[in-house]
Amino acid sequence: MLFNKQTYIERREILKKAVGNGLILLFGNNDTPVNYPNNVYKFRQDSSFLYYFGQHREGLVGIIDVDANKEFLIGNDIDIDDIIWTGPVDSVSDLADQVGVANSAPMSQLQQFINKAKEVGQTIHFLPPYRHDIMIQMSDLLGIHPYKLRESASLKLIHAVVDQRAVKSSDEIAEIEKACAIGYEMHTTAMRLCRPGVTEQYIAGVISGIASSHGCIVSFPSILSMHGEIMHGYPSPRPLESGRLILCDCGAETNENYCSDHTRTSPINGKFTSRQRDIYSIVEACHDHAMEIAKPGVKWLDVHMSVATLMTERLKELGLMKGNTEDAVRAGAHALFFPHGLGHMMGMDVHDMEGLGQQYVGFDDEVRPSTQFGTNCLRCGRRLQEGWVMTDEPGIYFIPALIDDWKAKGTNKEFLNFDKIETYKDFGGIRLEDDILITADGCRCLGDKIIPYHIDEVEQFIAENQTI
């Protein structure tokens, strides 16, 4: 438990007022076996359960009876057979008291709560499940087929949780900055190890070990590859090659499960070629442009499109694009190079609350998800609010299969110089990403130290710190 008791009490009070009535069910996670029951993955609590009930123990369910204004923590106490292996564990009653919950009960009584709620016609609110063991448990309790549970989830509860969790408190920001500090160590270590002959998997293993050494986990499987044009280019056993770039997208998750997420792209031999500088400088400018215009009240979709406009102008200067910039962006021609969104919310989940439904997290009645290629991958479009944490991650990629596909179909040919683009099919990709806090009048990068990303700073850092 990270925060004091009053924090969790206040969070649940806000949730009760937002939902208004009914019975709220918040399921914690169970241990997840790797290959047999007693060999399990490192436990990771459900984020929404953790946000409202604060406890990391497996096998717990939180109940908030809004109508009766009562709260319960449901779970079984650990018996002596388990204590031999795990050591003493607080009782469920003690866990409940630590977060200001007055009542507790064993798991065998959970069905009684559900049956009683059904008998009196009480609305039962639950969030969309994502783990199959929880789906089975919920299906047994509620009488809903596991495949129907996500569509049966409470929209009122989803909207209430999204609105509340999206705005980060000062304590939450401090915890995210701890994750950013670990992320800084991970990324600068990757830059130190970046040299010809070192394998992608070796670097990825070292930086994952940094997260573990802080008692943490990585906030997502580390992306580290010379093939930066592959969005999720996971590390291979291939040695790094001189003259190429290495893209590293990784982050840490603290013991309290707050995340960081940064990306850097570095020259493997320590020096950018002139062609790499040309493309890198565009991504660098787009990264900084987003930070200049992001502020409360501005639609994140508009920030994304403004970045796309700047990118298109600069790619035209290199002869890779042509025609009217506004028309090209409207047609989505830039998505050949930038086929993903500018960024996403971040917090206890690296794609914060994505499991609740991205259409509820990043969009609203004013801003709806796009169906256009590239922009359809934007995970958030609605107006920014003070206290939100977003990622700022523009990129330019030369994806041979996508280039071939568009060229063969003539897609956006009036805006793309395919002959020139062909000469870049061996380039790879460049992405730069930082975690930003939306402040009262703008935004700022999170973390006391900024991972080097300006061209001269990157080359200088590698030259002064490279090791193996």
Based on the model shown, name its key terms.
single chain; 468 residues; alpha+beta; Creatine Amidinohydrolase, Chain A, domain 1; Creatine Amidinohydrolase; five-stranded mixed sheet; three-stranded antiparallel sheet; 17 helices; 40% helix
Q: Could you characterize what this model shows?
A:
The protein is an alpha+beta fold and 468 residues long. It folds into two domains: 162 residues, 3-Layer(aba) Sandwich (Creatine Amidinohydrolase, Chain A, domain 1); 296 residues, Alpha-Beta Complex (Creatine Amidinohydrolase), CATH 3.90.230. α9 runs antiparallel to α10 and α11 packs antiparallel against α12. The longest helix has 24 residues. The two termini are 39 Å apart.
Short précis:
The protein has helices spanning 5-19, 47-53, 80-86, 92-98, 110-119, 132-142, 149-152, 155-166, 170-193, 200-213, 274-293, 300-317, 325-331, 358-361, 400-409, 418-422, 455-465, and strands at residues 23-27, 33-36, 39-40, 61-65, 70-74, 103-105, 124-126, 217-218, 223-225, 245-250, 252-253, 262-267, 389-392, 395-397, 429-431, 434-438, 443-445.
